[in-house]
Design a protein that fits this description.
Shape: globular
Bound molecules: pyridoxal-5'-phosphate
Number of strands: 12
Helix content: 40-55%
Largest sheet: 7 strands, mixed
Order of helices and strands: HHEHEHEHHEHEEEEEHHHEEHHEH
Structural class: alpha/beta
Radius of gyration: 21 Å
């Protein structure tokens, strides 16, 4: 049996007539950028999340970049973020002209560790002192809800408030997740979502969304996405061209009403994986916390003691795809060498890069496929020699 990491064709097949009708509607309208489809989608997203403003942009990367730009963060400013995330989290900070400060993660949730953040902000963190990070140059904290697991938002918010920092969420992997009953993307001053095709609400190309409850910040994001112009050809800010296509909005509007059901399906698969995989102590299943609603963008386990490569090889031979998100922490990326981090500076992020592996996870995953994954994992771990 072949089990893909994700199979988008099943969702497309189930929704094909509605998707085709949405495309036809946009083709007839000839309004291809922004316009009524995007405005309607923005309203529907704002209502779903329970937030005042939702602003469609060209990608999740741009959503992060424009959220940062809207706050005025730029040259001379630092932004505290996780070392264990997709590169876009850091590139958005750098492209805004600011400098990322990487903090370690909580090994159980893979989110920004409040303890490390507290130490950096207090000037007590040894690596950050060596790097010359002055806490008063830090303007914002940018947590990432990695794999769909919400970060420790309450503790991070308290720290941000105490130090007068903005909080901007990278919610690209976490649409549908919640923390203490509040949807992810409503926990900070601004948040960024992605509609990359494999995300929990996937588009048919690139797309992204900025959310905020702040009218002034929302207004700046809306200006920045159209080259700072209002009205057209009258420019108030140096922005960029970053708008959501009407086609993407129309197609995403077809999918949005299904999101909750898909998240329920993902959580069902996750619960089943956990039930059958928690029986071996050779891997660590994702943690379940009573105050967090994980949307399981990824189902990611930890396989330590150098067993990960062997397990992945075994699954590959059985036709089962797996992935490592991410093999290199951001503080050790070649392009960021000039920041001065060294191996050992952020040990939990570095260890996670050696140990994590994501298993097939998508709403339409079949029970027999999931069972094949579980069986192959058990086989692999039993046959793998202990070093
Ligand atoms: C996908 C992703 C992004 C970027 O989104 P794009 O739409 O691909 O630009 C940013 N941060 C994280 C954590 C992501 O997973």
């Amino acid at each position: 049996m072949r089990v893909p990491l994700v199979d988008l064709s099943r969702q497309v097949a189930a929704l094909r007539p509605e998707l085709t009708a949405a495309v036809d509607r946009v083709l007839r309208s000839t309004q291809f950028i922004l316009g009524p489809e995007v405005a309607a989608f923005e309203q529907e997203m704002a209502a779903y999340l329970g937030v005042r403003h939702a602003i469609g942009v060209a990608s999740g990367t741009d959503a992060l970049f424009l959220a940062l730009r809207a706050t005025g963060i730029g040259p001379g400013d630092r932004v505290l973020t996780s070392a264990f995330t997709f590169f876009a989290t850091a590139s958005a900070i750098l492209n805004a002209g600011a400098e990322p400060v990487f903090a370690d993660i909580d090994p159980a949730t893979y989110g920004l560790s409040p303890e490390t953040v507290r130490a950096v902000l207090a000037g007590h963190s040894t690596p950050h002192r060596r790097l010359g990070v002055e806490p008063d140059t830090i303007r914002a904290v940018l947590p990432v809800h990695l794999y769909g697991q919400p970060v420790a938002a309450h503790q991070l918010t308290l720290l941000a408030e105490r130090h007068g920092l903005l909080m901007i969420e990278d919610a690209a992997q976490a649409l549908g997740a919640a923390y203490r009953g509040h949807k992810v993307g409503t926990l900070g001053h601004l948040a960024a979502f992605s509609f990359f095709p494999t995300k929990s609400l996937g588009g048919f190309g690139d797309g992204g969304l900025v959310t905020t409850d702040d009218d002034a910040l929302a207004d700046r994001v809306r200006l920045l996405r159209v080259h700072g112009a209002r009205p057209r050809y009258h420019h108030h800010l140096v922005g960029t061209n970053s708008r959501l296509d009407a086609l993407q909005a129309a197609l995403l509007r077809v999918k949005l009403p299904h999101l909750e059901g898909w998240v329920t399906a993902r959580r069902g698969h996750a619960a089943a994986y956990t039930r059958y995989l928690a029986t071996t102590n050779r891997l660590t299943v994702p943690i379940t916390l009573h105050d967090r609603f994980h949307c399981f963008h990824q189902y990611t386990v930890r396989v330590g003691d150098g067993r990960r490569a062997g397990m992945r090889d075994h699954l590959r031979r059985r036709g089962i795809e797996t992935a490592v998100y991410y093999p290199v922490p951001l503080h050790l990326q070649p392009v960021l060498r000039h920041l001065g981090y060294r191996p050992g500076d952020l040990p939990e992020a570095e260890r996670a890069c050696q140990e994590v592996v994501s298993l097939p996870m998508f709403p339409e995953l079949r029970d027999e496929e999931r069972s094949a994954v579980v069986a192959a994992v058990h086989e692999a771990l039993a046959t793998e020699p202990v070093r």
